[in-house]
Amino acid sequence: MTSTIPPEPKRAALMLAGRRLSFLDFGGPGRPLFALHGHFGEGRTFARLARELGDSWRIIALDQRGHGFSDSPPDFSRTGYVEDAAAVLDHLGIQGAVVLGHSLGGVNAYQLAARFPGLVSALIIEDIGAEVDGDLSFSLSWPHRAPTRAQLLQGLGPSASHLMHSVREHPDGWGLAFDPKDMNASQQHLNGDHWNDWLASDRPALLLRGSRSTVLSAEHAKDMVARRPHTRLVELPAGHTVHETVPVEFAAVVSGFLGSP
Fold first, then answer.
1. Is this structure's pTM higher than 0.90?
2. CATH number of the domain at 10-137+180-258, please?
3. What is the C-alpha separation between 127 and 168, in angstroms, rounded?
4. What's the chain look like in SS3?
5. Which of 11, 105, 199, 257 satisfies CB 3.0 to 4.6 Å to 101 for a cystine?
6. Distance between CA atoms of 211 and 217, rounded to whole angstroms?
7. What does the pLDDT profile of the chain (261 residues) look like in tens digits?
8. Is-contact 36 24, C-beta < 8 A?
9. How wide is the angle at C-alpha 60 spanned by C-alphas 128 and 26, nearest 5°?
10. How many Å apart are CA 76 and CA 94, to the nearest integer?
11. How many Cβ atoms from other residues are within 10 Å of residue 216's Cβ?
12. Terminus-to-terminus CA distance in the chain, angstroms?
């Protein structure tokens, strides 16, 4: 890794079928690394990784549909997410990016490689499998709006610490940057068997698993690596959000993979 600190990211947007797709571009002269966050997240969750990697890689971090500063779509289909990602890379004139994805973003990343192979040179998949069976219905109990930021955080309870980037002041009070109903619809589309997409690409891949993850089991991760060529597995002492729990170690592993032949 380099100690050079990249400039503050520039926020830009692409209009796609009348809908805004917002993304952060951390700039720098390095090769492009396209980053896709998980449910409830947004592109700036990768700001720490950008600082750790310095300007050796140009990180572009998308606020995926219905998240962050991007508009909500008519649907949260698998095809929709993948075509959004492809459209942003095409808009930027980028071919052969390294694509990093966490959770939801991880499935989007390897499906992008399967369906648009010319856009992807390598994959970094963080804590998600080739079979997904998640449930986000707990988020439906979160408050829609609160009079103050403090009251919103209180209403979010233990989840508040994981949602700080998504807290917004809206015209009618404080709330989140996404609609939990949308997140539940998105998760339902994400659930299923995606082995064909995982195995469709032979691009070099790094699969990162949190050793305490309840989303990706150790057995499933080993099976994913055994069945797919040019794929390596690394476990770090974390739960599902490896990049947030152990950011320095995460960046070191990512940097090592990026620097390999």
1. yes
2. 3.40.50.1820
3. 27
4. CCCCCCCCCEEEEEEECCEEEEEEECCCCCEEEEEECCCCCCHHHHHHHHHHHHHHEEEEEECCCCCCCCCCCCCCCHHHHHHHHHHHHHHCCCCCEEEEEECHHHHHHHHHHHHCHHHEEEEEEECCCCEECCCCHHHHHCCCCECCHHHHHHHHHHHHHHCHHHEEEECCEEEECCCHHHHHHHHHHHCEECHHHHHHCCCCEEEEEECCCCCCCHHHHHHHHHHCCCEEEEEECCCCCHHHHCHHHHHHHHHHHHCCC
5. 105
6. 9
7. 544 555 679 999 999 999 999 999 998 888 999 999 999 999 999 999 999 999 889 999 999 999 999 999 999 999 999 999 999 999 999 999 999 999 999 999 999 999 999 999 999 999 999 999 999 999 999 999 999 999 999 999 999 998 998 999 999 999 999 999 999 999 999 999 999 999 999 999 999 999 999 999 999 999 999 999 999 999 999 999 999 999 999 999 999 999 986
8. no
9. 130
10. 24
11. 25
12. 16
Which structure tokens are listed for 36?
Answer: 């896709």
Provide the residue ranges of all domains of the chain, joining segments of one domain with +: 10-137+180-258
Q: Taking Cα atoms as reference points, which of 22, 41, 62, 44 lies closest to residue 163?
A: 41
Q: Pull the structure tokens for residue 144.
A: 């829609």
